[in-house]
Amino acid sequence: MGDVVRVGVVGGGPAGLLSSIVLSRAGVFVDVFEEHPQVGLPRHCTGLLSSETINSMQKIAGGLSKDFILRSFREYVVRVAGSSKSLTLKIPGKVYVTDRVLLEQELTDVATSEGVNVLLKSRVNGLSSDGQLMASGDVGPRKYDLVILSEGSAMNYSTALRMCEGREYLRALQSVIRVKGHVPGHPLVYVGREVSSSFFGWAVPYRDNGVIVGYADEKASLTKLRKLVRTYLTDAGTVGEEKSFFGGLIPSVKPCKPASGKVVGVGDAIASVKPLTGGGLYPIVKEVEAIPAVINSADIMEYVRRVNPVLNKLRKQYLLKKSLKLFGGYAGIVRVFWELGIRELTVSDYDSLRFRLWFPKNHGGFGSFLT
Hints:
- The chain is α/β, with parallel strands linked by helices.
- The protein folds into 3 domains: 6-42 and 98-167 and 255-323, FAD/NAD(P)-binding domain, CATH 3.50.50.60; 169-251, 2-Layer Sandwich (D-Amino Acid Oxidase, Chain A, domain 2); 328-370, no CATH class.
- Helices cover 29% and strands 32% of the residues.
- The protein has helices at 14-25, 51-61, 100-113, 156-160, 222-236, 281-288, 291-297, 300-323, 329-339, and strands spanning 6-10, 29-34, 48-50, 69-80, 86-98, 117-120, 124-127, 132-135, 142-143, 146-149, 169-180, 188-191, 201-205, 210-217, 239-251, 259-260, 263-265, 344-349, 354-358, 367-370.
- The strands form 3 sheets. Strands 3, 4, 5, 11, 12, 13, 14, 15, 18, 19 and 20 form an 11-stranded mixed sheet that branches.
- A hairpin with a 2-residue loop joins strand 16 (259-260) and strand 17 (263-265).
- Helix 1 runs parallel beside helix 3 (100-113) and helix 7 runs antiparallel to helix 8 (300-323).
């Protein structure tokens, strides 16, 4: 977009910061509006990232220290709560446990070093599709040639601008617990209605002897989270204490339209999350990679054309998640595999959720792909 000289970015999370970096490197003047006094806080994310996503962020940002990487693993164990049924998900590559607060602070450092103007404690109070923006503490409205809407799961302006038809959320609650003794080297995923009626719970090894235990549901409660903590400690054969709590919202609507006028959406703002797992950074990096096309072509629709394949995959996953109810949800799927004698799935593509099934020898050792 040869005539673009000023871009406003709504939100200083990973989507906004990565977008600002590619824009600044394209020679554009960028303002980032972040409502909180510090990037990365309040904390809300567990921080699981694939090696592909981390590599993509490195290509976009460069200069990341990788100090934010805490652990890595190659498998999950999915367990039906209250039963012996479980399923192991093998991952050919690695998935990393990261410190998301530190990651976002590093992205901020890269952005400011590239000349991005990061405005903290600046809440956007008005935004129109023609690029006009009003923020707290500002002397007046600012007019931008392009606005990157990366407001996160609030989705205030993506709904106001009719990019999204409405807002629905899962509420995620998480606790960092400190355990005594051995911490399993892989995450546990808990499924079943006693954990969540529409999603699942998790226990993820963190730094030192820390474990992040959390779950998401339409009506998440601290009481139910503490029950899951007790379940995990019993399964792990150890004891522990709660050190801190955090949480956030996961958009649960179908991915939205990616643009309205001079406004383009990135990440949670347009419900661009993996519906089956709630992960959002993989779609974000794919969308950020499309932003230079807008600058180069002076055509917002070029962004739409480039990100629609990503969004269409997420829309298919959204429909798949809806259909899981026919099988009894996540727990029902595990039970079906269990009855078939399947104990292990190989995840051939972690971010796109493609699996290879391994049947036991009494089923002929047959393998197949599911997409």
